[in-house]
Amino acid sequence: MNPILDLTDIAQKIGGLFIGGMPGPELDDQTTILIKDYHLGGIILFHRNIRDPVQLAQLCQDLQMVSMENTGIPLFLAIDQEGGRVARLGEPFTQFPGNAAIGENPDPEKSALHFATTTAREMSLVGLNMNMAPVLDVAQPNMDAHLVGRPFSHEPLQVIALGKIVINTLQQGGIMAVAKHFPGLGKSDLDPHQHLPTVNASFEEMESIHLPPFAGAIEAHVSAIMSSHAVYPVLDAGIPATLSRRIMTDLLRESMRFDGLIISDDLEMGAIVNERGMPGGAADALEAGVDLLLICKNQSHLLTSIELIRDKVLKEEIPYERLERSIARIAKYKKRFLYPHKKISLKAVKEFFGNTDT
């Protein structure tokens, strides 16, 4: 065991690797403890956390206040706002029909620009700073139902072009973009929320269809890329991409030269929990090369994952340098997008959206 490392310090460093969910629309005691004592890296919000723009802005303000007062570091405040069927922000936030509709629009570039400009403005206003979008999967025949309507197109070149517009526009508006689901879920045969899918694509298909949109995102300096929980036999047989060093580190980090943040898809999905369990899946993802570990619902999974990774680092089963690399990368992107820390104006939110008090 490494005697030099302080237990509290290392637990807090590991806490910064996690983006967690929270139960309701107001800051609760357990979430406060995770931020205050474990220095949680961020929070991802869902329908259960959102009533209206003013309440959401107040929640974001409360979350950042706890983090800034106790750690001096702002939180990633993330949401899935793809448009269409995956949009956590309901009315009066602007509603969009989704990526497939953008791709089918007579002027898809203008449509993508309008979506990203509006979304960045509205997210920024209420204090959100990370959008788990755009989807860069390339649509395929017989695509699993959970993806229908979410890819821009079945043409890789159009996915590249529209993805770049959304990434650049979100990030120019101060919102970190997250390209997903690497290395491409378009040919998935199952929904990873429940099962472990296998993407039976040849190496040639991966190189010509599924990987190019992510290469385009890297060219556009995307902040983060989200891993897929599918197995890609041609890349690493039997291991979900999120847990594969060959895919996360050798392919994405080294071959494709991506130096942004690698974010796991939700580690509570069946594809990971049924195969590796929790907290083992979180530790395996970190070892594979993932920087930010996403646990969207169960906060006890967050705590047990922090503890397991801490124990593995102390036993030198996970090198301390591996932890430090992700910590440094997270700090770099927080500095770029979250500083100087902006105060949320509830007055501006009310003026923009109208008074939404119920």
Can you tell me the number of structural domains?
A: 1
Judged by helices, strands and strand pairing, the structural class is alpha/beta
SSE string, helices as H and strands as E: HEHEHEEEHHEHEHHEEEHEHHEHHH
CATH class equals: Alpha Beta
Percentage of residues in helical conformation: 40-55%
Low-confidence stretches: none
Strand content: 5-15%
Give the full name of the CATH homologous superfamily: Glycoside hydrolase, family 3, N-terminal domain
* Largest sheet, spatial ordering of strands: 11-8-7-6-3-2-1-12
* Strand count: 12
Shape, please?
Answer: globular
Please state the second-level CATH architecture: Alpha-Beta Barrel
CATH topology: TIM Barrel
Mean pLDDT: 94
What about the largest sheet?
8 strands, parallel
Number of helices, where a helix is a run of at least 4 consecutive DSSP H or I residues: 14
Distance between the termini: 55 Å
What is the CA-atom radius of gyration, in angstroms? 19 Å
